[in-house]
Amino acid sequence: MYYLETEASFDAAHFLAGYDGKCANIHGHRWRVVLTIRGDELADAGPKRGMLVDFGDVKNDLKAEADNLDHSLIIERGSLRQKTLEALQEEGFRVLEFDFRPTAEEFARYFFNRMKARGYEADTVRVYETPNNQAMYRE
User: Fold this and answer.
1) Nearest by Cα to 65 from 96, 104, 33, 36
2) Four-residue CA torsion sign, 111, 40, 6, 46
3) How many structural domains is the chain composed of?
4) Which residues pair with 13 in a beta bridge?
5) Which residues are known to be catalytic?
6) DSSP state of 24
7) Residue 126 maps to which CATH number?
8) Tell me: the pLDDT tens digits for 29-80?
9) pLDDT tens column, 92-135
């Protein structure tokens, strides 16, 4: 089995509605996403001979997914009052709503599924909220 790993990062704010600690307040992270893909066979012909996938391709695809979240406020759908959400949007803030609570665990699964949908055989995704704290998802 062959494994390749690449990573991307993005800066975004979030909060955890209903949480009973500091993370209930809006705060930001430099999120780091580490993707590991796997495969049994390397290409045996053509320009990608000897490769599982082209590092440039997987790196660019993961970066594109991370860039979609960059410099935004990530919220769980329904976690803000409608008036608050509208006020933020009227001010021009980029607010992204998801159907899940924006935790590192949920984002690990999110990126796993996004990269799988792009055709990669994802093995694991790790999402770091801080340099010392990470969540990992594997099917």
Assistant:
1) 33
2) negative
3) 1
4) 28, 73
5) 23, 71, 129
6) G
7) 3.30.479.10
8) 999 999 999 999 999 999 999 999 999 999 999 999 999 999 999 999 999 9
9) 999 999 999 999 999 999 999 999 999 999 999 999 999 999 99
CB 9 within 8 Å of CB 30: yes
Interatomic CA distance for residues 63 and 57, integer angstroms: 10
Strand locations in 17-111 (E): 27-39, 72-76, 95-98
18: helix, strand or coil: coil
Domain extent, residue 76, equals 2-137
| Nearest Cα residue to 60 out of 123, 122, 8, 16 | 8
Q: Is this model's pTM higher than 0.90 or not? A: yes
Q: Give me the half-sphere count of Cα atoms (radius 13 Å) on the Cβ side of residue 28.
A: 10
CA-CA-CA-CA torsion sign (74, 15, 71, 58): negative
Two tokens at 89?
A: 């949007």
